[in-house]
Amino acid sequence: MSGPLLSATGVETYYGKIVALRGVDVEVKPGEIVTLIGANGAGKSTLMMTICGNPRARAGRIVYDGVDITSMPTHEIMRLGIAQSPEGRRIFPRMTVMENLQMGAQLVAPEQFRAGLDRVYDLFPRLKQRATQRGGTLSGGEQQMLAIARALMGRPKLLLLDEPSLGLAPLVVKQIFEVIRELNRSEGLTVFLVEQNAFHALKLAHRGYVMVNGRITMSGTGAELLKREEVRAAYLEGGRH
Amino acid sequence: MATTVDAPTAENRPAGAQRDLEEQRRAPLKTGEDPQNTLAASLKDAAAAALLAGVLGFFFLALRTEIAPGGLDVSARWGLWLASIAVVFAGRLLLNLFVFKTRRPVTQLFAGRGAGLGARLPWLGKAVGAALFLFAMILPFFITTVFPAQQRQYIDLAILIMTYVMLGWGLNIVVGLAGLLDLGYVAFYAVGAYAFALLSTHFEVIGFWTALPLAGMLAAFWGVILGFPVLRLRGDYLAIVTLAFGEMIRIVLLNWYDFTGGPNGISGIPKPTLFGLEFTRGEDGVAAFLGIEYSTIHRFIYLYYIIFILAIVTNFVTMRLRRLPVGRAWEALREDEIACRSLGINTTNTKLTAFAIGAMFGGFAGSFFATRQGFISPESFTFLESAIILAIVVLGGLGSQIGVVIASVVMIGGIEMLRNIGFLSDIFGPDFDPVKYRMLIFGLAMVGIMIWKPRGLISTREPTIALKERKRIGADYVAQGEGH
User: Fold this and answer.
1) CA B384 – CA B334 distance, rounded (Å)
2) Which of A156, B106, B423, B484 has the lowest CB atom count within 10 Å?
3) Which of A54, A88, A92 sits opposite B341 (nearest CB)?
4) Which of B325, B331, B481 minimises the CB distance to A95?
5) Are the beta carbons of B166 and B365 closer than 8 angstroms?
């Protein structure tokens, strides 16, 4: 395997004077599923947003595919082949499912739109049924599917997923994670997944990081982390029921 | 302890329970089947309101001080006082009987109707749009044949309404599609008008048609100038800055005496020509060229068609842009700015294009205004104009093109119609001028719309208000096959 697709070194992010990330090092290699787990307020989503350039890192470096993206504007970072399904899904509620998907395909050539559409409809047949319905009228699970599908429409090399399981029924979570695994296996899509649902995320991921209070405290393969006593105590035993 | 307290008394009962009890006692009155009770309660309530009106009105209406030789004189106006009490009593009674205290308020009737209309809108909107378009196309000839006596007045009114339709459509790009609340739209109208006026009075060769694109470009340029500082603002803050911008332009026009003529304005702005031909009686006029008899009305008909075409172009461009990536990006920006950025949309450029294109159409409308009037001054570009245009967009339904047309016809046409209502002065005396009350009627209309159709007359696609909205799924949310 070659060098990392995405690497963050010593990243520090502040909200005003409040420090959110205290020197984070994370690496994602091509073809990997990497997950970042941690409690509420640990800084998981902040790292995700910092990668996207909003807010910007005050120190450290973020390199994607050999390009330093630390101080690039968000929309230019996204044009390099990163797609994000942001926290809280953020679909466009008054636009139809189809229009939402069109928005996701802003950066690809119009000829590729049809192929991209077939691909996401294949992954999420539910969305095909709902194509003319407004985003806001979908159920939570369908909205999450739409958010991921919209991100995939941009034909990314790296998919950033922020808490896709948030507020969803266990069965739907399983479906969505199954799709992520399938995308990774069949197309080699690289995925960086931020999750609170540590059990599912670690089972899915090749490697994982644990974040506490703005710092990475542990890292290892998914299976390794699942066995670690500290991880079990903090994120699994308490959080599974 | 508990056994000693067998029944709650006034002392030991909590205040909440007391209130509950009282409400229970009052409840049958409110929703009761007994019409006798409703009538009695309504009468009582109306009498109380009338008493209040009597007390307040005694000082404000019944007594009047007048300057008399040697001091002030108090005169009484008992008739007015009694009339006001009677109006309050009757109004309150009717409201009580039909809205407040009845089980089925009449207002529900309107609300239900409106919703039913909205659900069937996809095809209805198109049909109404086509019918209005055809009617607008033949309107001048319709007026000249049906109302030959008042043709000038009516065509003038049609031109005025059409100008506001165009302004509404232009502002709709900024407010309705991109969701940027702009309270200073009149600034671009002013830039367009002054651009044409100054160009044409300083350079002989520049006529309406050559100045039109220049005026549009200048207005678009000012749109970008306004756009840059407000990029980071949204909502209320954006509204305040755009409001200030509108006033700044007006005040600069007012005070830059050497350049704009200040409060005197600019006069002698040329009329538009038809392929170089002027609408005059002479040998080289349009009438002589076409071999028809000269009439002053020709120029008005021509003006009407100019603004009609300009408005249609505005509408056409907006509808096309909505289907293109830039237009979809506007709408997405209105929905969720963060999601837009995460999809690789350059929000800066998207906002600036919305401001620039909206401003450009404002500029076109401005030059038309200048050529129609022949004279402009800063007085035509006050905040009230911005407010009226915004009211047209909001009342029509943000983002709805046909809604803007209906709202302009009602608001602008409505005001003009007030001038022609004769029977009101028979009732209220010869001094009564209904036009004076137009703002009051405006206000009432807006309150009514906000109660019954809070998203405007046509609200098939609403703007973003809050994410909470997701919970409220109305029939018009799931309307299919509309607006891609």
Assistant:
1) 26
2) B423
3) A54
4) B331
5) yes
Judged against a pLDDT cut of 90, whether residue B166 lies above it is answered with: yes
What is the distance between the alpha carbons of residues B104 and B102, in angstroms, rounded to a whole number? 5
Does residue B335 belong to the interface with chain A, where contact is any CB pair within 8 Å?
A: yes
**Identity of the residue numbered A134:** R
pLDDT over 80 at A110, yes or no: yes
Of B84, B103, B122, which residue constitutes the final position of a domain?
Answer: B103
| Beta-bridge mates of residue A185 | none
Determine the pLDDT at residue B418.
75
Cis peptide before A170 (omega within 30 of 0): no
Name the residue in chain A with its Cα closest to that of B329: A103
In this complex, do A104 and B464 lie within 8 Å of one another by their Cβ atoms? Answer: no
Check CB contact under 8 Å for B481 and A78: no
Average pLDDT on B331-346 reads 89
How many Cβ pairs within 8 Å bridge chains A and B? 89
Task: Say whether both B119 and B98 belong to one domain.
Answer: no
pLDDT score at B232: 81
Overall domain count for chain B: 2
Segment of A59-68, B117-126, B229-238 carrying the highest mean pLDDT: A59-68
B91 and B154 share one domain: no
Q: Which long-range contacts (CB under 8 A, 24 or more apart) does B27-31 make?
A: B30/B101, B31/B103
Yes or no, beta carbons of A103 and B328 under 8 Å apart:
yes
Judge if B134 and B83 occupy the same domain.
no
Answer with the residue of higher pLDDT: A237 or B384. Answer: B384
Q: Note the pLDDT of residue A18.
A: 92
Check CB contact of B462 with chain A, cutoff 8 Å: yes
Instruction: Examine the pLDDT at A40 and tell me if it is beyond 90.
Output: no
The Cα of B308 is separated from the nearest Cα of chain A by a number of Å equal to 31
Residues of B within 8 A of A108 (CB-CB) are none
pLDDT of residue B290: 80
**Torsion angle of C-alpha atoms A42, A48, A54, A56, degrees rounded to 10:** 70
B32 has a pLDDT exceeding 60: no
Enclosing domain of residue B271: 113-477
For B338, the token pair is 């963060």
Query: Average model confidence (pLDDT) for chain B?
Result: 80
CB contact under 8 A, A93 and B331: no
The angle at the Cα of B128, spanning B126 to B133, to the nearest 5 degrees, equals 95
* pLDDT for res B80: 86
Q: What CATH number is associated with residue B321?
A: 1.10.3470
Question: Per the CB < 8 Å rule, is A106 touching B344?
Answer: yes
Query: Across chain B, how many H-helices and E-strands are there?
Result: 20, 4
Q: Do A137 and B473 touch (CB under 8 A)?
A: yes
Q: Model-level pTM greater than 0.80?
A: no
Does B466 touch chain A if contact means CB atoms closer than 8 Å?
A: no
Judged by a CB distance cut-off of 8 A, whether residue B73 touches chain A is: no
For A36, the token pair is 């970042």
Which of B120-129, B258-267, B342-351, B392-401 has the lowest average pLDDT?
A: B120-129
In a shared domain, residues B137 and B240 = yes
Q: Which residue of A has its CA nearest to B330?
A: A103
> Which B residues in the span 342-361 are in contact with A, Cβ-Cβ below 8 Å?
342-347
Question: Phi/psi at A211 (nearest 5 deg)?
Answer: -115, 130
Q: Which helix (H) or strand (E) holds A12?
A: strand A6-15
- Interface contact B433, partner A, CB < 8 A: no
Q: Which residues of A touch B (CB under 8 A)?
A: 52, 54, 73-76, 78-79, 83-84, 86, 88, 90-96, 98-99, 102-104, 106-107, 132-134, 136-137, 150-151, 154
A99 vs B342: CB contact, 8 Å cut-off? no
